[in-house]
Amino acid sequence: MNEFQLHTLENGIRVVHKVVNNTKIMHCGIMLDVGSRDETHDQQGIAHFWEHMAFKGTKKRNAYRIINSLESVGGELNAYTTKEKICFYAAVLDNHFDRAFDVISDITFQSIFPDKQIDKERGVILEEMAMYYDSPEDAIQDDFDELIFTGHQLGNNILGNRQSVQSFTHKDFNRFISENFNSDRIIFTSVGNLPFKRVLKFAEKYLGPIPRFDAVKKRNVFSTYTQKVKTVNRTITQAQCAIGATAYPISDERRLPFFMALNILGGPGMNSRLNLSLREKYGLVYSVDASYTPFTDTGSTGIFFGTEPAKVDRSIKLVMKEIKKIREVRLGTMQLHQAKEQLMGQLAMSDENNSSVMLMMAKSLLDLNKIQSLEEIFDQVRKVTGNDLMEVTNDALQEKNLSILTFIPN
């Protein structure tokens, strides 16, 4: 595809680049097909802990030099961990791209995990856990994953648990990396105004000497979902509720129609059906959102809202009413057209964000081994029919299949 240029280094690491001429900023990152679902029971939280430790020292940089390396020239250096990915990424002026490439590759492959820094960062992560626990809007999403994926790695909190985080040593990080690093599952990705040849020059300089990694670790497939209803008493002032189930994996052709259906139901637009009902018509919530997260072998969908404890039951009934409506009432021609236009507009705005495009390219290569252009995605959106939307919602959003988790104030 001309829009994206791709090259595979001799060690198996792939380099993907998109040229955008009207910018002075280079966005770049290294994404690994490793995440919290790849942890064993005694490793819970180590992927996220490793993400933190990558900034705490390498063979040629201490923590201060890593922090100061890009910020001193106005750049940004960051990272994140998900259930299936770890990514280290940066944004700098184009004349500092060499430095950014050096730093990102250094923290990814040359971390030394100093013992003093491990002990220090342990406290930071425990505080991060406490912060999320004190934010019920965030905590219910983690607890809902645990409810949906009970007994599976996908249900584990990305942060781990206090016991596991307090136990990790230098050897544990090296063991996790040796068990999970595979060069064929590592992508360097960039978006900016530099030509591909120059990007490849830096790739050969900083990634070419990296040895080939050949670890093979088969992920446990999740296939044991059962509907559950759970209420938890928490020291909070507002009730929180999550409604959802498992959904389609990232390679499933039904993924796009289902994503469109969720966008109609509870997407970011103020005109989503759930927002119009629960907020605009009845004033029961401040916000209500429907989300869909696809994984390699399964997926999850959830509807999240907060409300007064006395209004929880009524809010749940209204959510179920809107779900029933989207399952049973086919969209009219104009409604379907508007839904497609809205989704394509949202996707186009996302495509204007070079940082998001940079991350998307790497994730798409790792998950699908291809990158679709915006126009190719638009073509798929235009082909979705009203029957397609009814089929996926009747399959994935049957009321008898939906789990419910509620946080109720003590």
> How many distinct helices?
15
Q: SSE order in H/E notation?
A: EEEHHEEHHHHHEHEEHHEEHHHHHE
Number of domains: 2
The CATH homologous superfamily of the largest domain is termed Metalloenzyme, LuxS/M16 peptidase-like
Question: Could you say which structural class the secondary elements and strand pairing correspond to?
Answer: alpha+beta
Describe the structure.
The chain is α+β, with helices and mostly antiparallel strands. The protein folds into two domains: 5-206, 2-Layer Sandwich (Cytochrome Bc1 Complex, Chain A, domain 1); 229-409, Cytochrome Bc1 Complex, Chain A, domain 1 (2-Layer Sandwich), CATH 3.30.830. 44% of the residues lie in helices and 19% in strands. It is built from 15 helices and eleven strands. The protein has helices at residues 46-53, 63-71, 97-109, 115-133, 136-148, 162-165, 170-180, 196-206, 255-266, 273-281, 312-328, 333-351, 354-368, 374-383, 386-396; strands at residues 5-8, 14-19, 25-32, 76-81, 86-93, 186-192, 229-234, 239-247, 288-294, 299-307, 403-409. The strands form two sheets. The protein has a six-stranded mixed sheet with strand order 1-2-6-3-5-4, sandwiched between helices. Strand 9 (288-294) and strand 10 form a beta hairpin. Helix 9 (255-266) crosses helix 15 (386-396) and helix 10 (273-281) packs antiparallel against helix 11 (312-328). The longest helix has 19 residues, at 115-133. The protein is globular. The N and C termini lie far apart (56 Å). The mean pLDDT is 96.
